[in-house]
Amino acid sequence: MQKRLIANFFSLSLLQVANSLIPIITFPVIARIIGPEKFGALNFAGAVVTYFTLLINYGFDLSSSRSIAKNKENVVERNRVFSEVLFAKLLLLAFSTVLFTVLLMYVPQFSSQKKLLIFTYLVSVSSVITSNWFYQGMQDLYVVAIFNFIAKSLFTLSIFIVIRKEDDYILQPLIGSISAILVAASSFTWAIKKYGIAIKVVSIDRVLGLLWDERTIFFSGVVINLYTTTNIIILAIAQTAKDVAYFSAASKMIIISQTLISIPLSQSLFPFIGERFGQSRTNGIDRVKRITPFITAFTFIAGVAIWMASPLIIYIFFGSAFTEAITVLRILSFVPLIIALSDLLGVQTMINLNMDKPFFRITLIGAILGLTLNFFLSRHFGAQGTAWAWVLTEVAITFFMWLFLFKNKIQVFDSTYFRYNYFMEVAKPFIYLIKNKFLKLYQSKSFKS
After folding, report:
1. Which helix or strand (DSSP H or E) is residue 57 part of?
2. CA-atom Rg of the chain in angstroms
3. Partner of 243 for a Cys bridge, out of 202, 238, 239, 405, CB 3.0 to 4.6 A?
């Protein structure tokens, strides 16, 4: 079981590096060529399209992954879930495209950036056929990680070749969309072949029924994005494109830390913990308690490193034109820690205990608070105000989730597991396993040479 968890963690780390870190490496090139204003426009378009990809994904990364994790050996059930998710996403893509077209035609801020938004919107197609949620449920992410790494590497190479002058900025989302579609198509095809999935036509009534059943997790995702993505849109309205660029530059660096640590941990742990919750409530909570100290330690160390290295990070990645982003990055440096704790309380515990409605209510409260803070702080303090709004919102959501679980006699934080002896006891088999992997790799290379 530990071997499977480690394999999934490193596979997801590779997947997330390919998905986010490799494109982020291109930002220094793009930012220096196109400047803060065009960089802000790119991030504005990305923030808008995020809502359409969110609608198409509809929370299936959690709900359907949970269903697959509980029925890994049931071929009939796997086929049913896979088919229902595919046809539901096709319906949502059709609806999203109609809505997107209307916005392009009648909203001035959209029509003025029509080409940029269309190129960015194409990524929505990849959301329909991506099978990451299925691999996550099956706890088998190695192959899709390889697909992502190859495709995103080609994306990075294309950026270095294509982006030569300021006006080339518009090609960045087009290349990104094509790359995402290739990755999704590869993982989709592999899933069908490897697991022998038989796709069957799903009636519109069943699709609508599925969307209704999963509405709580979907709306939870929507309200989360109200304060994690809408902040860029609000900042763009209240301030200038340069303010958007400074905040976006800092937030991209936060995404790097989440890419390497928080996201792989969360996605690999969800089915891992879900298995224990499937056995019993007590076993599931106990596993969360045991894992909490390690996630806390990883993300805290990352936060300290980001805070200390902020000036160097901004200068290396974005250059002297983005100096104002240094303070913004320091404000956001501990966001990965806060999000990791809220993930343990919310996704890993509440969702696995089918507490979907309380989870939604808490995130809704957080979204309302986040929007309120964003409107006020972004208007008066620019990019730094937007950063503080994000931090305070995440802190509030984490606190409310802890309070809800505490009132229901569920305690995730247990001081017993925060002791040095426990850390060393649990870490030894992980260290031994990783050491053996590297030793075998070294011996293999030595033998060949």
Report:
1. helix 22-57
2. 22
3. 239
Q: Is 352 helix (H, G, I), strand (E, B) or coil?
A: coil
Host H or E run for residue 125:
helix 124-129
128-173, pLDDT tens digit by residue?
Answer: 998 878 887 777 766 666 777 777 777 777 878 888 887 888 888 8
CB atoms near residue 392 (< 10 Å): 17
End-to-end CA separation in angstroms for the chain: 34
Residue 142: is it exposed, middle or buried by C-beta count within 10 angstroms (0-12/13-18/19+)?
Answer: middle
Nearest CA to 179 out of 148, 134, 144 is that of: 148
d(CA 21, CA 319): 18
Count Cβ atoms below 10 Å from residue 111 Cβ, excluding itself. 12
pLDDT digits 0-9 by tens, 313-357: 898 888 888 899 999 999 999 998 998 898 888 877 888 787 878
Residues in Cβ contact with 111 at an 8 Å cutoff, skipping those fewer than 6 apart: 104, 105
Structure tokens at 185: 């198509």
**Which of 304, 298, 381, 372 minimizes the C-alpha distance to 340?**
298
> pTM of the prediction?
0.67
